Amino acid sequence: MRYTVGMIRAVWLLAALPLLAPAQKLFPPLRIVGNLYYVGDEDLASYLIVTPEGSILINTGYEYSVDEIRSRVGTLGFKVSDIKILLVTHAHSDHAAGEAAMKKLTGAKMYAMQEEVELLETGGKTDFLFGNSNWFPPVNVDRALKDGEQIELGGTVLTAYLHPGHTKGSTSYAMDVSDGGKTYHVLIANLGNINDGTVLLHNPKYPKIVEDFTRTFQSQEQLKCDIFLTSHAGQFGLHSKWHPGDPYDPNRFVDPEGYQRAVARAEVRFLQQLQEERDEEQAWKDHLKFKDVAPQQF
Q1: What is the pLDDT of residues 181-216, one digit of tens each?
Q2: Is 88 helix (H, G, I), strand (E, B) or coil?
Q3: Can you tell me the distance from the alpha carbon of 155 to that of 51, in angstroms, rounded to the nearest whole number?
Q4: Strand, coil or helix: what is 139?
Q5: Cα R_g (the chain), whole angstroms
Q6: Which of 95, 159, 220, 291 is the most exposed place for a label (fewest CB within 10 A)?
Q7: Which ranges of the chain have pLDDT less than 70?
Q8: Can you tell me the distance from the alpha carbon of 257 to that of 186, in angstroms, rounded to the nearest whole number?
Q9: b/e per residue, 169-186, with b = 16+ CB within 10 A?
Q10: What is the DSSP letter of 254?
Q11: Which domains does the chain have, with CATH numbers?
């Protein structure tokens, strides 16, 4: 087959389309309330807390997210070099894969719940569900946290709560933020959601998973907040509460009832799966019992 000049040109243009296409516009950062800012993308939530003594960054997303976060921080008028503390809601690649790169970029210290340290330092290889995949660059943890421990920087105080189940060291962070003469109770909640493929009963890689999920729901039901945020934008309704170009108004994020609904939905899904697994286990036991007592056919 002979190739004409026109055919060659058409092939070249098709190959070059990705290069000619305009770069995708970054999801813009926004001020949530006071010194708390959203610097994540359309789905993966990252939060910047700015203080006179430096900043705190919660979640870095994937490795490619680091440059995007740096751009958003700059858009807000801040510097990533001012980040002093790195935190994470849980050590899955979509929230923690950029931690090592961000730590190297900023020189910040990595803090994490004690139960999550191993997962971060092995790059996800010890995860009970994703241990054979979804690895990420390991990051050294400088300070291991305990349930209820406080993190202080520049007059801002966060309380870290152990909310296990999604991972063994999943963590929520609570803080009070003053703005316009009003104090807002803010909770960045790691919801007790169950990933596809998770086994609740007799899980050899996570024997306490049912106990841990139960503990998390009990704890989160007792926590009170005005503004609730989560590891994913959709979980707290970011796109229905705020649109690019909207003026600053922290009250748009006040949603204590939405928080209770989110916790209740996660608990209902957990209880449903737990009951399904128990029913399946009982059905198998009944089958074996019937097989043992059933008369032989001749």
Answers
A1: 999 999 999 999 999 999 999 999 999 999 999 999
A2: coil
A3: 7
A4: coil
A5: 23
A6: 291
A7: 1-24, 291-298
A8: 13
A9: bbbbbbbebebeeeebbb
A10: B
A11: 24-293 (3.60.15.10)
